Amino acid sequence: MRKPIVGISLKMYQNQIDAARNFAHAIVEEVGEEKKVEQFMCPGMGVLYPVAMILKESTIGLGSQNIAPVSNGAYTGEFSIESLKDMKGSYAEIGHIERRTYFSESDDLINQKVRLALEQEVTPVLCIGEVEKTDDYDAVKALMKKQLFLDLFHLSNQEAAKVILAYEPAWAVGKTCAASAVHVHQVHRLIRECINELYDSQTAEKIRIIYGGSVSQENVKLIVSDPNVDGVFVGRFGHDPKRYASIVETVKSMKE
Question: Could you describe the subunit structure of this protein (predicted)?
């Protein structure tokens, strides 16, 4: 039985320390003792430390929205996994579509980051997904398989099973509506098929796949109703702590 997951990323929306602390306090008050749903929060990089100090007394894990491909060295302006671990962080978001497009991150670079995270015992939250909306599921599967092959290159079966895959189609990220539940269910099934083909059925059964892209209180129940969807990665619709808590509660009830 795969443990359900709810993650939330604040991107670069919440950049003042007081606001970030108040938000983290509110989330902890709402769901900071929840144990049946695994949770993690990825604050903005500038407020990572103050949020870390609040999350450490809760069951909510700390994640960074990015890491450098190496732990230490001459990488001006980058964020080291050493700092994340020092703050007791245990998740790293890697390969988000905004990193791939705005900052031209290649699959090779993403693979380096995934491997580094696993070496440092940090859980990679690997974001994958298509850019253009399409109903050609053969093409979607081919793209997913290519991304997974390149991004998980050199990983053993045991290592791959520790990765959290976040399916985030670019055309649904930051938009008014999420991808339809039918589409999400179909693609999650295809992603699991890809893992089975690249690794084996045991790894495909163990790996957890979550959906991100305009997840809200209103659509989460349908999205997580399929057994191949292990949870959600929440964005702006989780900026209200009570709405976020409602999403966690829905995932919990659907996966019990």
Answer: Homodimer.
- Confidence class for position 101, pLDDT limits 50, 70, 90: very high
The residues facing 5 across adjacent strands are: 38, 231
Each domain of the chain, given as residue ranges in start order, spans: 5-255
25 is catalytic: no
- Write down the residue that tokens 């209200």 correspond to: 240
Residues 124 and 134: their CA atoms lie apart, in Å, by 27
Catalytic residue among 38, 93, 130, 168: 168
3-state SS of the chain: helix, strand, coil percent to 5?
A: 45, 15, 40
Dihedral angle, C-alpha 25, 29, 34, 37, nearest 10 °:
-50
Q: Are 139 and 119 in contact (CB under 8 A)?
A: no
pLDDT tens for 46-87 read: 999 999 999 998 999 999 999 999 999 999 999 999 999 999
**Is the pLDDT at 176 greater than 80, yes or no?**
no
Q: Tell me the C-alpha distance between 103 and 112, whole Å.
A: 16
Task: Write out the two tokens for 226.
Answer: 């399929």
Q: What CATH class is the domain 5-255?
A: alpha beta
C-alpha span between 6 and 3 (Å, rounded): 10
Question: Of these residues, 34, 93, 96, 188, which one is catalytic?
Answer: 96
Q: What is the mean pLDDT of residues 86-109?
A: 97
User: Would you call 239 a catalytic residue per the annotation?
Assistant: no
55-59, long-range: CB < 8 A, 24+ apart: 55/24, 55/28, 56/88, 57/28, 57/32, 58/28, 58/32, 58/33, 59/32, 59/33, 59/34, 59/35
Q: Contact, 250 vs 220, CB < 8 A?
A: yes
Q: Could you give the CA distance from residue 110 to residue 90 in angstroms, rounded to a whole number?
A: 18
